[in-house]
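A favour, since you know our structure tokens better than I do. It will help me judge whether the discrete encoding reads sensibly. The space below this message is yours for that.
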Amino acid sequence: MTKFLYLIRHGKTEGNLRRKYIGITDEPLCEQGISEIREYIAAGHYTAVEHVFVSPRLRCLQTRELIYPDIPYSTMPELAECSFGIFENKSYEQLRDLAEYKSWIDGGGKQQVPGGEQPEMFRSRCLEGFNRVMQEVDEAGIEKAALVIHGGTIMMLLEAFSPEVFDFYHWQIKNGEGYQLTIDQALWTEKKKLAAISKI
């Protein structure tokens, strides 16, 4: 049986507008973020689903409430964004002269941020959360589900499960945007790979 999952990045927050590194900071959506999500809804951007899995961060919970107010949902702590350590809630302008930041940028933004979550721990946590989603979808016989989560979480999942090899940052998307994942049960069971990925 073919199933479809929709990965949706939460709407904009004030920190997003200011281009800050927002990980564990629990910001609400800003007015612009709410307005943009409502515009996407009016344009038919989001597919109807049977269940929603959502990060426990406020920005994701509010986005879910806007898009899928009447759909059953489950909170998934494993799919929360990573901690950006000493970069948390700071912008490029605030960090650009910091030696640790220069080193992180020079390394392609992939090594651990001082004081932040280790990349491999973040990866392991995200994959564990996604596998739990897959198990719950399978057990409940759900054919379409949405995950309202974070940009970093989405990039981590698609880097791991894409049928083609792409860099982590290839999967960057804007707030409120997302991807449709096509899941062929046989392929997933055998290789833990998605059948297809397309932007929504």
Notes: The mean pLDDT is 95. The first helix runs from residue 14 to 17.
